[in-house]
């Protein structure tokens, strides 16, 4: 199968073969038409040495055998053999490459026999003992010289091939590294966008739940207790302004703003509890154990889990019943438990109404290295239990 080379490379090889033929032409003319034919065949071998090293080697063998059959002397055009052997090692397939090395050995042996034995015998009527010893000595010298030159040409091609393959491997490694870095970058960006989407869901869902609860309360209290209605409207305005600010910060992150937007931590739980209590939810918060310092990412996870749990209690729970929120601290982390009574008309947790909230809480807990279980009991109570370790990724 021919090698894949460009048209410019093929043109270069043809031009160089033509130049080689022109350089050797004056010497071949002196030898007559036989040398001219051998020169043309060797030039053809050089012309296709990169296009098809196998064909080039075959053509060169044909030219060399024709030269020996016609009993021609060693000529300058025989240097073409060096270029052909070089190309078999530099550009040939594995089989052609090793065939080129074998050809160097066989060619050295045939050339030695032809020059040291056949040619002298063809020109002499009798060979004496002294001549025989001289022929053997000459044969040894010619064989060593021939195989050294031919193998050197083949080895040079092999070295060039090794350098080229090394560069190609490095180039592919660089491309693979760039592609891997691009994939890693896209993965990080996608993870960050997913985090922002979860934050957006938490902010909007919580704020809308509070706004709806306050709006319902203000609507019912508008005629009988205008002051309570005004207070409810004030709470709606405050929650809406806070949600608007949070949404703007999250959208700024989506636009790749350089400054990091502030994320809620455990110190912000008081404000969150105040909002849901103002919305009419009786939240009873208790802590046990000595609080440990959580990592920032894990504090955000705790806050968002509590926020989503209280939002679900406000939207789907019985607001006439208290909500129990408990933190149990331990050296390895904190256990968060949130329990609220469910309304009779609330769909199960795996339904469409909870398609974002509960999976989002569970994913936040897992990303923080912890775990979360959310389930509705037969007693009409919905429980959320989460364990968040001290540091992100640590094992409790």
Give an overview of the whole structure.
- By secondary structure, the protein is of the alpha+beta class.
- The protein contains 10 helices and 5 strands; from the N terminus they run H-H-H-H-H-H-H-H-E-H-E-E-H-E-E.
- Strands 1-2-3-5-4 form a 5-stranded mixed beta sheet, covered by helices on one side.
- Strand 1, helix 9 and strand 2 form a beta-alpha-beta unit.
- Helix 6 runs antiparallel to helix 7.
- The protein is rod-shaped, with a radius of gyration of 44 Å.
- The relative contact order is 0.06.
- The mean pLDDT is 80.
Q: Calculate the terminal CA-CA distance, rounded to whole Å.
A: 62 Å
Q: In percent, how much strand structure appears in the residues?
A: 5-15%
Overall pLDDT: 80
Number of helices: 10
Report the sheet with the most strands, covering strand number, pairing sense and barrel closure: 5 strands, mixed
Low-confidence stretches: none
Pattern of helices and strands: HHHHHHHHEHEEHEE
Helix-residue proportion: 55-70%
Radius of gyration: 44 Å
Shape: rod-shaped
Instruction: Compute the number of strand runs.
Output: 5
Instruction: Give the strand order, joined by hyphens, for the main sheet.
Output: 1-2-3-5-4
Helical/strand content category: alpha+beta
Q: What is this entry, summarized?
A:
The chain is an alpha+beta fold and 396 residues long. It has helices spanning 7-31, 33-47, 53-69, 80-91, 94-123, 129-221, 226-254, 269-278, 296-316, 357-367, and strands at residues 283-288, 323-330, 333-341, 371-376, 381-389.
